[in-house]
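Q: I'm writing up a methods section and want to include an example of the input and output format. Could you take the sequence below and give the corresponding predicted C-alpha cells, formatted cleanly so I can copy it straight into the document?
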Amino acid sequence: MKAGPLFHPFLCAMKSARRGALPRFGGTVKLLLWDIDGTLIYSGGVAGEAMRTAMERVYGRASLTDRQTYAGKTDQQIILETFPERSPEELLGRLDEFMAEYLHELSSHHDALRQRGRVLDGVVAALEQLSDKPVILSLLTGNLQPVARLKLELLGLAQFFNFDAGAYGSDHHMRIRLVPIAAQRAAALYNREFAGQDVVVIGDTPNDIACGKAANARTVAVATGPFSVAELQAHQPDVTLKDLSDTAAVLAALG
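A: Here is the clean output for your methods example:
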C-alpha cells in the first residue's frame, strides 16, 4: 500500500530549500526530522477542514459517524481508517486525485490559514540558530509531500528545510516506516550515512516517538499538540519539552 510520487503544478515550480547544498562542516552532521502539525505550526483547523472536504469529494461521505483522530497519523492512514469498508487498493489508487483536491482546498483558503493558523512559539528562533549548526533540517510528517511543502510555504517556514531529505505520508501509510526512507534520501544527497543518534525525530505525538525508536534515532517530544508532557513521557522519548520557546533547551535536546 505504497503510493507513488505526487505532483502539483504550483508546487513543482517551487525549489527545495538548500537543494544540493552540502553542510560546510566536518565531522558528525545530524539529520533533524521535524513533524509539522502541532510541532512547527498550528493550522487553526483549516488543514483538517480542507482534508475532510477533499476526502468527501473524492471518496464520498464517510460511513463512520465518529470523526477520526488525525494526530500522528499519515494522510494515507487517515484515508484508510475513514473508509474501513473499502479496499486499500481502491482508496490509495485515487491518492493523486485526493491530493489535488486537498491542495486546491488549502490554496483556496490560504488567507484563512494565515489568519487562523500560526507558527508555534520558539520555532523560528530555533530554526535560525540551527541554520548555522552542523545539521540538516528536514521533515518527517504524515502529510503528503506537496501538502507539507504548501503548509510551510504559506506560513513562512519553507526556506529553512531541505524537503528532498525528508519522508512523508506519501511515501508509506505507516509512519513507523518513514525514518529509514529519510535517512536513505539524506545519505544519497549528502554522500554520508545517517543512522542511530545522528538522526533526530522531533514531534508532538506518541507516533513520532515510536517511529524514531523503531529506527534507533534520538527522539524529542514536544507537548505543543494534543498530548501532555506526562502522556508523551510515558512513551519514553529521549527528551520531552513543554514547547520550543527556550532556544537553548531546544538545542541541548537535539544533542
